[in-house]
Write a structure and sequence with these properties.
- The complex is a heterodimer of chains A (about 230) and B (about 220).
- Chain A has about 230 residues and is mainly α.
- Chain A is built from 10 helices and no strands.
- In chain A, α3 packs antiparallel against α9, α5 crosses α6 and α9 packs antiparallel against α10.
- The radius of gyration of chain A is 22 Å and the shape is flat.
- Chain B is mainly alpha-helical.
- The chains are: A mainly alpha (about 230), B mainly alpha (about 220).
Chain lengths: ~230, ~220
Amino acid sequence: MNFLLDIYNYRIIAEYLPLFYEGLCTTLKISFVSLLASLAIGTIFACLRLSTNPILWRLAASYIQAIRATPLLVQIYIIYFALPELPILDRRLNEIEGGILALSLNAGAYMCEIIRAGIQSVSKGQVEGAMSVGMTYIQRMRHVVLPQAFARVIPPLLGQTAILVKDSSLVSFIGVFELFSAGVTVMAERLIPTEAFVTVALVYLVIYLVLLSTSNYAQRRLAGAGSGVI
Amino acid sequence: MSETILFTFPLLLKGLWWTFKISLWSIALGSLLGFIVGVIRTSRLKILNATLGIYIHCLRGTPFLIQLYLIYFVLPATEVEWLKFEALPAAVIALSLYTSTYVAEIVRASIEAVPKGQVEAARALGMSKWQTLWHVILPQAVKLMIPPMAGVYVIVIKGTSVVSVIGITELVRAGEQAALRYPNELITLYGLVALLYFIYCYPVLRLGRWAEAKFGRIEVSL
């Protein structure tokens, strides 16, 4: 076992396990809240983007372009450091709130594109068919469009969730103590880069693999359900 | 505000120049590596194929920030002389590896999107595997690669912002330095940084959209 200790000193990691656990919890918490918020933002902006009102869809389109063409790190800096200069809130956002806000706005733009593609992938004939049997807009959406769109949207949404979890490592830049910061702390205290960062990488990898297998499972299940309908 | 812009703009432009250089190097090296990996992935070399699959998933499954740290901090700790990188090579290597996984998946998906009948026809005419790949598959596949490739290049350009953490003065770090001098003008400064990224990335995104309309799209999970 000694040769393993030379390469990867798991005893030190065992000692720091509570720290990694705390970081992991924060990472998961931030990712989960951002996921819910970004889904809400994504759905709203997808509806705006598909609207025929030029003001509404241009607004949504420029939001998406602005997010997609700038790095998340800059978005985090703007929201956390620069936003307090504007007199919008009467207090500063703390680093977790700022991080969640930036992550949600960032992921929301990508979620929006996924949801929009899902809605548009439902063929026009289906909508026309539903119209011809006298369904209202709400009924068409609820019984015809959304169930089919949902099946197609789940795998890419899970993929985007995996990206969101990875991206959440960037909030360590504004001082949030999450999984990556736990690695940095261990590195700083014990000067063991291998153990510190390989451990963190492995934890991220496990989260990714869980999401990937869920996505594959959903794809198999929903592809059957979806193709039956069409 | 105008004074801030006037005084910090040269610094930010210098940062943009580094962002430009790093991203182009990474795109070039990463595309080359990704192209090779992607072509191998469509072949029937099972063990190599599975190994490259693991390579792709490992890089896809971890944040770029971690990959950068692994290359910049962990590899030198192995005490192997040629694995001790300066900040700049470390950044380019990390970004290239990161790019290569995306490019590999795009190349594979594009090659697989070419109808099988064409390969069979080419083989029936007596073309070798390489001739089929070079004269029949790739000319068609390359067109399909352009739209998703533009998306990846934007991801890489944005990814360069993270290398500021190992002390390379690219655009974000230039912005941070400017922020130290003008701590009350953060909206202007970071807004300017965002604008410069936008000016660099937006044409690439548009190019992707244009290519998608012209050549059609393929499904690649990014």
